[in-house]
Amino acid sequence: MNNNISTKKKLINFLTVWRALIILLLMCVVASIIAPSFLSVGNLFNVIRQISVVAIIGCGMTFVILTGGIDLSVGSIVGLAGVLAAGVLAATDNVFLAVGIGVVIGIACGIVNGFFVSVCGIPPFIATLGMMTLLRGCVLVYTGGKPIPIKNDIYKYIGKGEPLGIPLPIIMLVIIFIIAYVILTYTRFGRSVYAFGGNREAARLSGIPVIKTEWLVYIINGFLCGIAGVILTARLGSAQSTNGTGYELDAIAAVILGGTSLSGGTGFVLPTVVGALIMGIIDNILTLLNVNPHATNIVKGAVILIAVLADKKVKDLSAKVED
Q: By Cβ atoms counted within 10 A, which residue in 106, 186, 237, 279 is the most buried?
């Protein structure tokens, strides 16, 4: 009996940690059969370059969801950081100032989100939904609905450069992933994030500064959104009022596909990147097959529902094993 329980626990742990990678490998096999050009080096680099922005946002979203929260404003933060960076660049032609403004805007938005959620006690869904609408309005007012062209080649290099033949956004994603992994795995703050998500009251009683911890995860998330906004505008060569639209769904889907629990307390950063790759491959397969681009949303919605259902089933199975 004990052996059966131990086997089931091992299976649950295996599915929790590796299910995203298993799904990714299966999708790659299917994609290579359906569209042989999928496995070309150029196409694979293109997929990773395209998902780099969502994956970076997903790393920040992982911090938030690990605390049991959610941030619906990430797409709007990306959009605002990008258009303001482009606007400053157009006015001054100073790349460092433009990038700095984009990152600072992201951090500022994270501070505001964290204040409403951690200090004011407003539910994350409501607070970030309000911020999403407010910030998108700011983007539309600032741009007037018109794109801001980017002519500076140094700025464009952030999104299009390929040092040593590797796209710069991919290099930046790897660096961010490593830093996020180290923070969550080896620092006191990382342990506090997991403890907070597992049981807020228990974390508070054990001496963890819960308000500070929750506030910081939203600041980290905003910071990464600022970086993502700069990369996105640099890759596209312009800043548009629609930049970042829908990215909140892609980021949340990547985190859920990666196995991070929506209730908080359990999850990892690497599977989030794998989840982003899965979403990117879905887009790429549909593009290679000349499927109507609007069908992508149907597939993504279905993937999110399936991922949430899978998460629930794994939790139910785990609860039964514990009983």
A: 106
